[in-house]
């Protein structure tokens, strides 16, 4: 049995199904992300695990123990909130010591543990400050330290980075991953940011309309999205109509109209070649510069196609330029039609 | 922040003058050496202040008011804090009813409440009791505490409470160590506002106080109906000073903007 296990976990609010029969098994030491758009039920799932939201049906098992209806205080989980949720009237040290004081740990031991965790999150010089005197990133570290110091079996992170600006967010992603590795703690993170989920998770759980639609390691999730929704939500995708050819290999259908298959082709998997070469002809509609990449919108007979090309120093294509598009057939992904409709 | 035009500034100036002028006059007259309320006055004297402190009935009334305001404000706070927490975070049957009930004394004239309570206390046979005078004050000052505590309770980050729970805090510990400190500015501000309102209250108190429980404002009112001399000005100046001091403390702990304008 997995360390943290959800069995058919459900939550209904009146007539609304927030979470529908969700199964999930998280192994000890694993970092799992719940990824989905707002309202998909990922936060409700996390709150049920933390004990802040009552479970409508199903079961939560932690290390074999049924905690479905246990009080939050008796679960002993570490929770980090989107708003940081620090105690504004306490110093950093007192915030972190709070959980240990609740556990009636002797003062000397508290001091030692707080000191260790402050070093882990690199906040030792700020121990006697108040939360309002800290930056967003520092507050997030305090929240992390406060959750970790009680040595919880599982760490729950609720959109931990969404209040930080872009640069800091990336830095904190690495920081969270570093700390998680150092402590070896089982972690479940809720996020709506696919880049965040892909970069730091061992596995990603995609949720849509209260249901889990795919669970995979990040690379597999990106390369083999199951549904149209996932291929669009995780990274960018060109969706093309297609058919199986005589050998049973999926091919893009070049005539207009719906094909038998929906195919996904990632923008960076397409090569731009000379006009009248390649599999498909097009004309550059627009281009956008992202520093390390160029993004082209290209008009073709199959509709508009997005192509991403790394900025390798060569001259970019101008608007209106005729261009050929080519790709390797095995990079086409067949999407299944079992969509969830909210 | 938009700036006021000259016309608006002039109007504000007039309003402030209109409100402040009587207070300033009273305070000046309090220092007169004459036997009548006279302005301009012939000199500077503290004789009327000395006269106040020689009047045992005024001193007794002052203590009555002080004890009354202190106990009533404290009791009102003890009622308002749990009420505000319940109203701000739970949906329960009768929630809007309770919220309206707690706030309703603000819109009922004190005169009406005074007459009603006089009759009620007479029926109960508790006329002239300090306890019931105090409870009547609790009724009329609870709305002030409730409003401030409600604003504070709505404004706090609920996830901080969830964090405390997940860290192992029980209900009472959670309230004592996390919730109460976070709403404390609202609680302290509410207590002080209630204290000031109880201390200044005259309309209701006239009906439900007895000579033994007479409050300072009632004592002043009774005295003023008989004679007007500068001693009244001296008492008024003392009350103004006390209220102003309380207002300054209120501004420091909570911010008068937030109490009076509802700014956050």
TrEMBL record, chain A:
InterPro entries to which the protein is assigned, alphabetical: AAA+_ATPase, ABC_SmlMolc_Importer, ABC_transporter-like_ATP-bd, ABC_transporter-like_CS, Mo/tungstate-bd_C_term_dom, P-loop_NTPase, Transp-assoc_OB_typ2
GO biological process: quaternary ammonium group transport
Lineage of origin: Bacteria, Pseudomonadati, Pseudomonadota, Gammaproteobacteria, Pseudomonadales
SMART domains named in the record: AAA
PROSITE patterns listed in its UniProt record: ABC_TRANSPORTER_1, ABC_TRANSPORTER_2
Protein name (record): ABC transporter ATP-binding protein
Residue ranges of domain ABC transporter in the record: 4-234
Superkingdom of this protein's organism: Bacteria
Keyword vocabulary terms for this entry: ATP-binding, Nucleotide-binding, Transport
GO cellular component, one term: ATP-binding cassette (ABC) transporter complex
Molecular function GO terms recorded: ATP binding; ATP hydrolysis activity; transmembrane transporter activity
UniProtKB/TrEMBL annotation, chain B:
Name of the protein this chain belongs to: ABC transporter permease
Membrane topology: Multi-pass membrane protein
Signal peptide: none
GO CC, one annotated term: plasma membrane
Pfam families named in the record: BPD_transp_1
PANTHER family: INNER MEMBRANE ABC TRANSPORTER PERMEASE PROTEIN YDCV (PTHR43357)
Domain ABC transmembrane type-1: 62-250
Domain of life: Bacteria
Localization in the cell: Cell inner membrane; Cell membrane
Residues annotated as transmembrane: 7-31, 62-85, 97-122, 134-156, 177-196, 231-250
InterPro entries the record matches: MetI-like (IPR000515), MetI-like_sf (IPR035906)
Keyword Transport: yes
Organism whose genome encodes this protein: Pseudomonas veronii
Keyword Cell membrane: yes
Family from the record: Belongs to the binding-protein-dependent transport system permease family.
Main location: membrane
Alphabetical keyword list: Cell inner membrane, Cell membrane, Membrane, Transmembrane, Transmembrane helix, Transport
GO terms under biological process: transmembrane transport
